[in-house]
Amino acid sequence: MQITVNGRPKTVPDRLTLERLVADQGLAQTACAAEVNTILVPKAERDAHTLADGDIVELVTLVGGG
Fold first, then answer.
1. Has domain 2-61 been given CATH number 1.10.760.10?
2. CA distances from 49 to 28, 46, 62 (A)
3. Is the pTM of the predicted complex or chain greater than 0.85?
């Protein structure tokens, strides 16, 4: 199925959870906010949130610097 992740089209397997997508993006051990179709999904709910064809996902992390 096709979704959009941070503005880029991505083909992913059916029944992919948001938690798995975060892990696949290398962000499982990082402080990360996840939004699906403009709705923030709490970290505790990511494993139960199954993505659907056409979903728009935004993954945001903190970046430090000086």
1. no
2. 15, 5, 23
3. yes
Which amino acid appears at position 53 of this protein?
D
List pLDDT tens digits, range 24-58.
999 999 899 999 999 999 999 999 999 999 999 99
pLDDT of residue 62: 81
- Please give the structure tokens belonging to residue 9: 């089209």
> How are beta strands 56-61 and 32-36 bridged, if at all?
antiparallel
Alpha carbons 21 and 65: distance in angstroms, whole number: 26
List b or e across 10-41, with b for residues whose CB sees 16 or more CB atoms inside 10 angstroms.
Answer: eebeeebebbbbbeebeeeeeebebebeeeeb
Residue type, 14: D
Domain ranges for the chain, please list them: 2-61
